[in-house]
Amino acid sequence: MYRMTFRIIISIVIAGFFIGSSFYYLLGSSYEHNEFQFGISQGASLRDISRSLEEQDYIRSAAAFKLYSILSGSAHRLKPGTYTFFGDMRVPDIIRAFVKGPQEVTVLITEGKALQGIDSLLSNQGFLPTGVLATFSGKDFDYLFLQNISSLEGFLFPDTYRFLPSASGEEIVNKFLENFSIKAWPLLEEYARKETKLDWYDILIIASLIEKEVPETEDRRIVSGILRKRLSLGLPLQIDATVIYATCGGFDKCPPLTKSDFAIKSDFNTYQVFGLPPAPIANPGVDAIYTALNPVSSPYLYYLSDPKTQKTIFSKTFEEHNINRSRYLSR
What we know:
mainly alpha, 12 helices
């Protein structure tokens, strides 16, 4: 009797071991790649979710997924949304993520990044297909400052953002514009109330030029004054950054300028066209906007950037400017 009871216990233990081992195996992932995305639609059932995971080879067993969800008390707590998983995710890990809900992804937009570069950044991080940002115009969004504005260049305010992986293009752009309305528009709106030769949109354009050309705040204020002086004298602005924008559409992975680039026919080529370009060439931050609004008067009419130190070199005359070009740009 004792021996029979012992044998039964051993058999149960062995059977339990094999069942547990099999269940543990079935809770593993069959996905062989480093990353995968999975979406749960609104109203999707546990059966729908588990079957879809199995059909896409993300899990080994839909039945094991359902059983673990029920036993862990998670079956009715799986939240809809788009999820990104990294590495070899087991069923318990996936279920914990579904219970927690989609996690926002942090995206840093640096000052001076153009729309083209922001589009590429968002595309590379899996948010939007390439080229989506360029399809939007001001009329697509209900903001006072976007009346009669076509391109959103200049309005995608640089900052640190958090987006859900499932965010639409409209949701992403609205976050940019809402931030612009809070941090940039009050400065420009106050200026817009004044009667001046330049309107607030001109200031935003100047801010974008300054953002790409000059790194230091005090130098930016001097350049802001130089640009206004050149505009009042009817002189071309002759800004290299506008030529880069004209030839490349942005600033990411653009080749060095050549002599022929300065002759390109474009409204953004400030060597060939007098006055400001028709729109911003990048998305400026608060400092660039502040310096565009607060120019400093100086005796200078020219400036250049030392490629080695990034220091801004100022000149009073064209002759002095040419000397500086030979000194700093021919090294």
